[in-house]
Amino acid sequence: MDKSELRRIILEILREEAGGCPVKRVDLPSVRCTEADRLDTGDPTHRVYTHDLFSLEESPRLGCGLMEMERTAFPWTLRYDEIDYIISGRLTIRVDGREVSAGPGEVLLIPRDTSIEFSAGEKTRFLYVTYPADWQSQA
After folding, report:
1. Domain that holds residue 81
2. Quick check: helix, strand or coil at residue 90?
3. If DSSP codes are grouped into helix, strand and coil, which group holds residue 28?
4. Number of structural domains found in the chain
5. In a domain, 2, yes or no
6. H or E element that contains 14
7. Are 98 and 21 in contact (CB under 8 A)?
8. The organism sits in which domain of life (predicted)?
9. What CATH number has the domain bearing residue 59?
10. Residue 10 lies in a domain
11. What pLDDT shows up at residue 77?
12. Which listed residue, 61, 109, 120, 121, has the most CB atoms within 10 A of its CB?
């Protein structure tokens, strides 16, 4: 069986489980990050959590998840494109000596191959969308 046939079968099963509809809804306010979602930034004191909302089988091209940070700043180089929609708190991105901050209802675009520092003082929750979906293997 080739990859495209396997993908077709998986999508068919997912549609059947969703009542024949390929669209999936997530109740974002009810999603909570746990210790299992802790992102390894290289510093165990960092309070950074990511929770993917869709699997690679459900969304093979776009990644989407919830990220929570609190009293943390850490460097990161994105090997993927990312859009962040701030739900609560304030997210600051530092790049090349400049800062860009966003609060609830605002959106940030971070292009691929950008070296940044993620920073949040208070508890900050934001939705991230990445391309490609498998951002973890790109990091």
Report:
1. 27-138
2. coil
3. helix
4. 1
5. no
6. helix 3-17
7. no
8. Bacteria
9. 2.60.120.10
10. no
11. 95
12. 120
